Amino acid sequence: MPTFTVHEPPLRKNESVASPERFVFVRDGFHFWAFLLPPLWFLFRRLWVALILYVIVSVALEFGMSWAKVPSGWRIVVELMLGIVIGLEAATIQRWTLQRRKWKTLGFVVAEDAELAERRFFGAWTPRGATPQGAPPPAEATPVYSAPVRRGPPSGSDVIGLFPEPGAGR
Questions:
Q1: CA–CA gap between residue 158 and residue 151 (Å, rounded)
Q2: Beta 24-27 vs 104-110: how paired, if at all?
Q3: Which of 14, 111, 134, 163 has a CA 20 to 30 Å removed from the CA of 37?
């Protein structure tokens, strides 16, 4: 099942809490369009630095392979391998760009698709200071511990675990 990381944008002017509509959910895994058309995928996602780095690496690889007189079949293999790496690391590139732009990572959600990930995340997330006026703040859940079950008083031959009593019949 896919995993999504949730990112909160930096606050705008006159904003105390970031608007949930601006949150970004980044899916982990292989991105087919990033593999097939990396420059267009970078443009669509507005990953300008990654696009520039991709162009530089592609041009350098092509120049180096033409200088070394590498056969065209091997050039295709190298470009295909670069595309596979981009497809596999597309989510990491997108998270790196968001982090560089001062976005905060809030956590991750496991869901079938982005819509279900949003539902699960916002169902469990309450924005800071989002309690209605006059409503009491939500009580924090305190863990309830129960005493372990003990049958009889402790003895010197107690065994911890699911082992039979020493000297008892089987």
A1: 11
A2: unpaired
A3: 111
Given a cut of 50, is residue 15 above it in pLDDT? yes
Closest to 38 (Cα-Cα) out of 100, 80, 101: 80
Residue 16 lies in a domain: no
Q: How many CA atoms lie within 13 A of 50 on its CB side?
A: 24
Task: Establish if 60 belongs to a structural domain.
Answer: yes
Q: Judge contact between 110 and 2, C-beta under 8 A.
A: yes
The C-alpha atoms of residue 104 and residue 125 are separated, in whole angstroms, by: 15
Residue of higher predicted confidence among 143 and 49:
49
Sign for the CA dihedral angle at 96, 97, 101, 103 comes to negative
DSSP state of 152: S
Structural domain boundaries, residue 98: 3-8+22-122
* Mean of pLDDT values over 94-122: 90
Q: How would residue 101 be classed by pLDDT, with cut points 50, 70 and 90?
A: very high
